[in-house]
Specification:
alpha/beta; Rossmann fold; Glucose Oxidase, domain 1; 8-stranded mixed beta sheet; 10 helices; globular; Peptidase_S66_N; S66_fam
Amino acid sequence: MTDQPAYPPKPRPGDRIAIVSPGFAGPGAFPLPHELGLRRLREEYGLEPVEYPTTRKLDATPAERAADLHAAFADPTVTAVMATLGGDDQITVVPHLDAALIRANPKPFFGYSDNTNLLDFLHRQGIVGYHGAALMTQLGRPHAVHPLTDASLRAALFTGGTYELTEAADTSTVLGRWEDPATFAREPAAEPATGWHWHRPDRVVEGTSWGGNLEILHWMAAADRLRPAEEHAGSVLFLETSEELPSATEVFRMLRNLGERGLLRQFPAVLVGRAMAWTFEHPHDAEGRARYRAEQRAAVLRALETYAPDATAVLDVDLGHTEPQLVVPYGGRVRVDGPARRITVTY
């Protein structure tokens, strides 16, 4: 891990962007959002997507997926890399990665959820990645890319510099089925967002960002893949939970375990994504969604009171498994201005 993480050069319209499936090869199961995302990259973002042997291969081995990542990063004609989706076994891919090859060919990588594994790996190499904007979920969104997501992604992809995150006025929760073409013909239903929840907003914190999906970080800790806690001192932690909808009890226990590891007290500021609160398996109504999110917020604050009582926290931020979704730099600069209620990132 280097002391000065590097922002890789930005792609330009007309460049080639690698489309990879380091976790679950979602395009092999659900081609409709994948094809829509590819078309939007070409027509709306001016980038030429390049697929690899395992992009749509459902039974690809970890070594095969790692080989595709090596090919994507080593190809001098490819200027950015984007994951199709997340998954649940990217932790098995990381041991196959060639750190020297990737350090020698740094490129912006976009993905979240299971891609926390790869984002952390890049961070260890001193390369800034981008938590967010997977092809099938954000680029393959029904009807259109959400305007807030679009603005954030374009800034992260093409322009860089500082970017102030914007609270969403509404959020989409109830989803359509990806195998149904009718899903993509209409705007997703939305409900009013409750805004960001600020806790101890009495300071301004600026530091290097680290974190990702809480469940994946918990697995990484079990596999002893996390850096020593002290190396994160002064950084900004960001966390989010997945479509598996962990209970408030599970969220507290995972955070408690990270606290016992000495991690939570290293971060003077913590950002927590708005919890996804609906799936086909758990079709909560509006009251149930609100209750689930409130219980998760309480679990997070309970853990912080125990392990990081002085930390400034912002909950229900539009990051991770939420719609719209804002891109967060992984290993980049984040400024949390409590008195002004502003979050600014550096892309």
